[in-house]
Amino acid sequence: MTQVSTKPPIVSIRDLQMVFPVPGGQTVALKDATLSIEQGEFISLIGPSGCGKTTLLRLLADLVQPTGGELLIAGQAPSVARQNRQYGYVFQAPALMEWRNVLQNVMLPLQLMNHPVATRQARAREMLKLVGLEKFERSYPWQLSGGMQQRVSIARALAFDPPLLFMDEPFGALDEITRENLNLELLRLWRETGKTVIFVTHSIPEAVFLSTRVVVMTARPGKIEGIVKVDLPQPRSDETRESVRFFEIATEIRELLKKGHA
Ligand SMILES: Nc1ncnc2c1ncn2[C@@H]1O[C@H](COP(=O)(O)OP(=O)(O)OP(=O)(O)O)[C@@H](O)[C@H]1O
Questions:
Q1: 91 CA to middle of ligand 1, Å?
Q2: How many whole angstroms from 77 Cα to the centroid of ligand 1?
Q3: Where are the beta strands (DSSP E) in 38-126?
Q4: ipTM of this complex > 0.95?
Q5: Domains and CATH numbers, the chain
Q6: Mutational test site, ligand 1, from 55, 200, 220, max ligand atoms within 8 Å of CB
Q7: Residue identifier of the C-alpha nearest atom 27 of ligand 1
Q8: pLDDT tens for each residue of the chain, 262 residues long
Q9: Measuring CA to CA, which residue among 79, 43, 47, 44 is closest to residue 61?
Q10: Residue limits of the ABC transporter domain (predicted)?
Q11: Ligand 1 pocket residue status of 8, Cβ below 6 Å
């Protein structure tokens, strides 16, 4: 007998639209986006600069309000999901507080919510262990490499143990090898925690390596050109990047990107 899941998708968007007023007119940042994401997926958003990837994340995070369409996070309005701490957000720049050490940075969200000191310390240490930085809790951001700083910001985003993690080009500024290592670490963390990740990237290989599905967007006004399922075996490894299937999927995404540019 087939089991039918009654759980709502963790993200459900229908005909989502975002139009920004600009002097002398308007910018259509996102047009008619429809997408459903199940719990535990790893979704990458890829598309040309200005196609609305960050806007889509900001809509999901309730940082801007859509001008049309529907959007639900775990069956809730984004404002409710935000209050219920349903997601963590990792930005392109780590945005750490220079005057706070690593532990204090990770504890900050819990401190703002008045969690007791012992609870927030224990939770922050657990998250630092998850990202492999338990030995650096007393270090200050300026004492860490760019990759380590981004791991701290991932630990901070996970402090509330949210089911969803939004990541906006988190590794874009890092060198290729650091980026590949962090990709592997992120996949380990994703497997161990069962989180749903929505990840913005400009890199086709990064999207293929990380994702269960890749959402390909068109040039402005940003629309979804296609959704590519990545059927590469898990866990992914360095060998994954050399497989024939990896190149086939990368080519499929490249063709969709070209179509969206035309
Ligand atoms: N607050 C705003 N007011 C006016 N226009 C905006 C605003 N936010 C975004 N836009 C415009 O919406 C479009 C989409 O921007 P967005 O940052 O979502 O693109 P993106 O795909 O993330 O780009 P990139 O890959 O370069 O980061 C752009 O043309 C941008 O200028």
A1: 15
A2: 23
A3: 42-46, 68-73, 87-90
A4: yes
A5: 11-86+163-261 (3.40.50.300), 96-161 (no CATH)
A6: 55
A7: 49
A8: 555 656 789 999 999 999 999 999 999 999 999 999 999 999 999 999 989 999 999 999 999 999 999 999 999 999 999 999 899 999 988 889 999 999 999 999 898 888 888 999 999 999 999 888 999 999 999 999 999 999 999 999 999 889 999 999 998 888 888 889 889 989 999 999 999 999 999 999 999 999 999 999 998 888 999 999 999 999 999 899 999 999 999 999 999 999 878 7
A9: 79
A10: 11-244
A11: no
